[in-house]
Design goal:
mainly alpha, 11 helices, membrane, protein transport, TatC
């Protein structure tokens, strides 16, 4: 294919992806009650699933003790078009999240024809695994990282006389940043897989720089979480586990590549 033919193919992939995003965004926009009351504003209420599980865990550890500190703040809108703007932007973000597997599939369809047969063989299931890791990251961010951050920030005060009245935009920004960050951070194993296939990283390098990687992970966790050590640790632990999993993935990639080269040499 010529350069213009590649651009034409890419254009249609982008058009189909844009249509999918618009469709899902429209569906989410029309589901306003579920989007805001149940989904977005869920972590702002004391009956949210995470807070109830924290309460049950606290009762198991100390039956006579109180539950964890409950969220207690007011969400308000200060601009005339604030709620409408948040409705549109939140629907768009949710539309992208829902269509992420399809968006990656369209990207994969564009890249796949340029791969060698053995590269296509080794990359089977890439769309499935990328989608699963993204969904797991989103769920972890929404049910674990974001509620803990919101709970900490909402309950933190410098003086008891100051009431926390959180702007709607600030609340949604915190929720979406935490959730999406976890979704993309959970893609670490697939990133390592493709880097290992390209020969840009090896399991030995990852093992040598393990301590450095943990420091980087701690820094990333500090950036995407509030200044609360417990939230940072909760985000750091699964990412460190994913890093260890990535080392094994890189080792498996090299083992498979070595076996394939030996087979080709034997056949030749």
């Amino acid at each position: 294919m010529s350069f213009l033919d590649h651009l034409e193919a890419l254009r249609w992939h982008i058009i189909r992806s844009a249509i999918a995003v618009v469709v899902f965004t429209t569906i989410v926009f029309l589901s306003k009650d579920f989007l805001f009351h149940d989904l977005i504003l869920g972590p702002s209420r004391n009956d949210f699933w995470t807070y109830r599980m924290m309460c049950k865990l606290g009762k198991l550890l100390n039956p006579d003790g109180p539950c964890a500190e409950q969220v207690n703040f007011i969400i308000q809108n200060r601009t005339m078009s604030g709620q409408l703007a948040m409705h549109i932007s939140s629907s768009f973000i949710m539309g992208i999240v829902l269509t992420f597997p399809y968006l990656f599939w369209e990207l994969w369809r564009f890249v796949k024809p340029g791969l060698y047969p053995h590269e296509r063989q080794n990359s089977r299931g890439a769309v499935l695994f990328v989608s699963i890791l993204f969904i797991l990251g989103i769920l972890f961010g929404y049910f674990v990282a974001a509620p803990l951050s919101i709970n900490f920030l909402a309950s933190y005060t410098v003086d008891a006389s100051i009431e926390n009245q959180i702007d709607l935009q600030s609340y949604i920004s915190t929720l979406t940043t935490m959730t999406l960050s976890c979704g993309f951070v959970f893609e670490l194993p697939m990133i390592v897989f493709f880097l290992a296939k390209a020969g840009l990283i090896t399991p030995e390098i990852m093992q040598v720089y393990r301590k450095h990687a943990i420091v980087v992970i701690l820094v990333i966790a500090a950036v995407i979480t509030p200044p609360d050590i417990s939230s940072q640790i909760i985000v750091t632990i699964p990412v460190v586990l994913l890093y260890e999993l990535s080392i094994r993935i890189a080792r498996a990639v090299r083992r498979n590549d070595t076996a394939r080269l030996n087979k080709e040499l034997t056949n030749s």
